[in-house]
Amino acid sequence: MAAYSGKGRIRASISLLFLLVLIPLPVLAADNGQSTLLNELFGQINGFLAQILFFDVLFFIEDAQFPFIVAWLIAAGVYLTLRMSFINLRMFRHAWHIIRGRYTKPGDLGEVTPFQALTTALSATVGLGNIAGVAIAVGVGGPGATFWMIIAGLIGMTTKFTEATLAQTYREVRPDGHIMGGAMEYLSRGLADHGLARAGRWLAVLFCLMAIGASLGGGNAFQVSQSLSAVKQSVPLLQSQPWIYGVVMATLVAIVIIGGIRRIAHVAEAIVPTMVIVYLGACLFIILANAERVPEVFGLIVSEAFSFKAGMGGFLGVVMMGFKRAAFSSEAGIGSAAIAHAAAKTPYPVRQGIVALMEPFIDTVVICTMTALVIIITGVYNAPEHAALVQANQGAALTSKAFGSVISWFPYILTFSVVLFSFSTMISWSYYGERCWSWLFGECASLVYRLIFVAFVFIGSVTSATNILDFSDLLLLGMSFPNLIGLYILSGKVRRMLDEYLQRLRSGELDREVREAA
């Protein structure tokens, strides 16, 4: 789109109008000790959205609660895993070869390497959900929720594979060299190929609006607010002057995101391995220090996962809690990570899809399981003195108690991890929101979104409008509704592409291509 076209000017004007409207809203919602009108308004909107997305699909079973949106994610994950013949379990070795750069060739079209796309997507998913979300799942649903989180992570691998493959298939290279890709592209263009152009366009617009809202709330203000609560424990000054943290984080985020996807990818490439190693190292120390209890804990996880001692409602509650927290953690089915994978340099869409399936494995199967083991081994999840934390859903604080019960200074490691996790999540979600914003309003309006995003970083440190944050979480899960419709319709195309790619891999053609290009 030309920057100076009439349509471009109209879209730029609309985006500026958004700027004037959006920035004052959270300021008006700042907590002054009283409930604000805006916060109450969002509370009413949340109630309406919850009735649509979280209505109980098992209302006919006594004491059972199973939200529609969770069932929607489970059904899609199971269907795609079967449709792709368990690609999530078959391609580990090949995925590792791709990540290491074995199949990288000079001249591949894209903005970042496959590994950078993976770390960018991981930097968005590996966040507070791995620390706070897992603690909440175990605290509320018991150890059995861990088992269902692992299952959700495994089937989510196929969902991520499908999303990333479609993102690569339908991505568009803009005149300025930027790549536009993600759920909005395969919904609009992919469904058009099936004679559903109008429906695809509306689903794409719905997805973008939800993604923008989720990026400013759950991918931004929520991350700042939660990480600030952890840092306050180590830096007392921030108890009375939280705005200092907001200014620092806003400055760091601005430095990274103004540079676009290439700078975001380089930062993510450096941060993600570091934060994962630091956090997992601390978890491993606790687990190895209690190695004799590990078999007992795994036995407890499996037995509690299939326990009916609380009736059918209790069993389904454990399943729902595990899948729900896994959805927040890995974002499989949400469609967000497809935006990052669309920018990867690769001649074969399926190849990047195979890279993407490693995300839920690393994020949920490995990191979330390690967190759960720490929570269960230390016993903080059912300790009477921590009941208030469980009831208040203060998962990060509960995890901090688990770390501190082993070594007094371990909470400092957790604080460091929380800051890295939140920062990496913010920079990646800024890219997701910016791509959706640009899809709606044009590339010339992308700077407007980045300014809004940086403003929300600061706002997240000084506001406690919980209903606005809940609103963004509802939008995050809501993104799966239009996204999965597209995955169902386009899954046949992905399967055909997968079969063709595997045939080339088995014949040795892909290895010959690399040798000839060297």
Spell out the blueprint of helices and strands:
Layout: H1 6-22, H2 24-28, H3 37-53, H4 68-83, H5 87-90, H6 92-99, H7 114-125, H8 128-141, H9 144-169, E1 172-173, E2 179-180, H10 183-192, H11 197-231, H12 237-240, H13 242-257, H14 260-289, H15 294-305, H16 311-330, H17 337-341, H18 349-356, H19 358-378, H20 387-391, H21 395-404, H22 410-441, H23 446-462, H24 466-478, H25 480-507, H26 509-517
Antiparallel strand pairs: 1-2
Give an account of the 3D structure.
This protein is an all-alpha fold. It has 26 helices and two strands. It has a two-stranded antiparallel sheet. A hairpin with a 5-residue loop joins strand 1 and strand 2. Helix 7 (114-125) packs across helix 22 (410-441), helix 9 (144-169) crosses helix 10 (183-192) and helix 14 (260-289) packs antiparallel against helix 22 (410-441). Residues 1-5, 19-23 and 28-35 have low confidence and may be disordered.
For the structure shown, list the relevant keywords.
518 residues; mainly alpha; Amino acid/polyamine transporter I; two-stranded antiparallel sheet; 26 helices; 2 strands
Report how far apart the termini are: 36 Å
| CATH architecture descriptor text | Up-down Bundle
Q: What is the number of helical segments per DSSP (H or I, 4+ residues)? A: 26
CATH topology: Amino acid/polyamine transporter I
What is the general shape?
A: globular
Which structural class should the secondary elements be placed in? mainly alpha
Radius of gyration, taken over Cα atoms and rounded to an integer in Å:
22 Å
